[in-house]
């Protein structure tokens, strides 16, 4: 009997009940392909049963295509359709059921033909049968072949590979969307974009889409991010646009990734094999990562099995950045001020991870392992891909560009995480024409991209007014070099050995040309940075933080020197309040008066100035809290190891 006839005879309620009964009795055969009706998922019990018997592929088709199809029908085949109900509402309602049970999503282009969709299905099923896993940037066998492919959850827990390398997806396994698929994402809210992007990178056997969606929804709530869209794009001047990444609880771009990464980490450690195990997240921060890690991880219900230890350089963070770390009134958090620079902190963390004797001791005595939450952790890096893709899609949504139009993006460059995430976005199909690395006076990346020589020998880290990018050895550069050299672990190991033995390494011209085709780098002096803050504020009322100002200077120079007409996205990685002790003296031209001004007074002055954007409400609340505690350590690796041991003992 035709569907339309049955529906008209028995009505909606009985039809769905009968259809569900038929589904409950349906037995699938091996190697069978079952085409389900669009109303099958409305009967949850039967659809749950059938979904367990095989792989459910969700053909995510646009509402417009469905409406066109329905309009051509001569009979009513929509089981819950009534004249008084808008069909779009029915489709939105049904989607909530479809989202509950699928294993793999196929994002169908508008007006896509069946043959093209079939190809996508075969490609997706092949991916399901052949999970590619992740490899270390340094790990090879004697034959030169990779070994030890890790699943997603393992990379989260380990943080750093055993051989000291970083986990990556090999470039031939990078996911990519077609322009038609990208267009389907335009106009979606941030959390929906995040789900569709991360589904491409995370195999459903590692983390099913429904669980992933739950964590995404819980990470990007309005209670956590003050901006409804999580990030925002603001027109600054001419063809320059500010990408605001600072609307999270600690006012930096780090919140966009760490709110999600922390929940993914907890999921990973709750596997049966790890349920009774304890973990300490060990983090070196140049300013913003520390407070974001503390906020993300310390809110988790881990029953005392999870601790966070943060190292920050004594003179390498702003007054506000320090306050946000030491004011974090959380259990199982240990904050250490190190009388050294960020590179020492980061090197110490890496050395601790590679200290087998220490790790074995922690394992045997406390059943405890160490992990990382800065951008050396693959689970921290992936969410950063989302905010770069979302930025471009936002510009399409608002009509600034059409999809496919090239744009440039300029990023304050510290540990190279956001730069690498922009590179991954480009590989996925976002048309970033040039990814521009903006350095402060610690301009080793600029020199490297101009000469091909990474020359560290005799170079000392300078303490600048943009401390989050005061870095001479950016960890994620290793990942980029791995990709750009054709997944060559041999070259990566060679570069690292040369850097360790001689304080430098050189890439060949072929690799240098590949780098230059993707990227451009330049640097900014302290004077130019301050001038950019003052000039931008006077001309537009927009207040840049010191890191964003570095990017503004570099973006201006690039556009002038190349006569570039493409839109320029300037990544604003932190709210200006994070560097208020530098910003206020600059715009009010009274450096001496603000030198020792309490942070609470600074906040009141910012409120009186009424700049754009507004003062960060969550930071204002945090500053009012009393100081909890922090420990001061000399720049000695053994001293820091002892602090770690004391902290671990306190968790047991």
Automatic annotation (TrEMBL):
Domain of life (superkingdom): Eukaryota
Pfam families assigned to the protein according to its UniProt record, in alphabetical order: SKI, Thr_synth_N
Methyltransferase in keyword set: no
Keywords: Pyridoxal phosphate
Occurrences of domain Threonine synthase N-terminal (ranges): 134-220
SUPFAM superfamilies: Tryptophan synthase beta subunit-like PLP-dependent enzymes (SSF53686)
Modification N6-(pyridoxal phosphate)lysine, positions: 254
Cofactor(s) the protein requires to work: pyridoxal 5'-phosphate
An example Gene Ontology CC term for this record: cytoplasm
Keyword Transmembrane among record annotations: no
Family label: Belongs to the threonine synthase family.
Record-given protein name: Threonine synthase N-terminal domain-containing protein
